[in-house]
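---------- Forwarded message ----------

FYI, see the Kynureninase record below. Original note from H. follows.
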Amino acid sequence: MTHFTSRQQALQRDADDALAPLRAQFALPDGTIYLDGNSLGVLPRATAARVQQVVAEEWGQGLIGSWNSAGWMELPGRIGDKIARLVGARPGELVAADSTSVNLFKVLSAALKLQREDHPGRSVIVSERSNFPTDLYIAETLAREHGCTLKLVTAPEQIPAALDETTALLMLTHVNYRTGRMHDMAALSAAAHTAGALAVWDLCHSAGAVEVNLHRDGADFAVGCGYKYLNGGPGAPAFAWVHPRHVDRFVQPLSGWIGHAAPFTFVPGYEPAAGISRYLCGTPPVLSLAALECGVDTLLSAEPFGGMAAIRAKSLALTRLFIDLVDARCAGHGLSVVSPREEALRGSQVCLGRDEGGYAIVQALIARGVVGDFRAGDPKDGLPDILRFGVTPLYTRFVDVWDAVEHLVQVLDSGEWRDERFHRRGAVT
């Protein structure tokens, strides 16, 4: 329990917070309590000026020469090395490129190819039914193309028993997008290896939010996005990582020119670059990579204060406060805490379930300046509609959590969420 009984206590906790000065890095709109960094991170103040510099100076004045003079060609690896510091990878092992879906296609293709060559009898990809849909769509397509089967479990506890001599890959998202439940990467990677399978991890909801150590925890492949906790902006490039023991064994299927060993020789035959660079495909998107680097730098600014360990500790304190306040103040309103109460299992978001009006409640909160989001429930998974509230420790304050729950109480007590305008659905929920 947090034992916060007043708003003043939340303010005092913020005053004592070593990470509090890092909030100044972000251009947060006045009057907004932003609890949706698990969907789109806040704009870093440095980003606009950096992108303008790339546009006006490096592109405007340097023109094509900036590929060399401004180091544009090195951006995927340079930013990749920075992201590597956040996820327990080593220099030269990770690249920033493409989207999560495209990178997942690359690494799943590589992993399946390796397994089918080494263990021809293995033909099953194991994942969760509640995994993020794009991961399942990509896996379903590749399973069909490779003559494999996609096997989905309905509960995390069923995963170890689903791994056997037929399993080629275990593909999981580290933190579930809908519930905020976090897997034990080390235990499940070890279970996959014991069964003879490879472990493929999606870090979209964990990179920059929780402590990740890909080497320590036995991952074989990993991907993740740049626009959530890495604050890279809408549609920011994603990233891909491959364990060194696998990286040079396979030519990934999107063998574009940038992944060539010597891209400017322009020869007709493809020869893959050494190491993780072979997982590049097309021309680096310089403007969006420049924005992503600013976002990643906001996370690295926490290193003098304890880095990801300090970020994780604050995240747990914030989510614990949110849960405690909902328990204490929202009883009788039909809300349930869907996110795990056990801290080792909880990512950096609090997800509340409600059988009626979840979308409208979120919209009523947004109208008050409290920005969360909504995800529809799934009766097959036994989940109600979900109200999601993400905490981003670099800019989320304890007083933000206190005030957000106060607004939630008022929305529920007043019934204002029943207003028709809050029930009209937009394209993005």
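H. also flagged this: The two ends are 32 Å apart (CA to CA).
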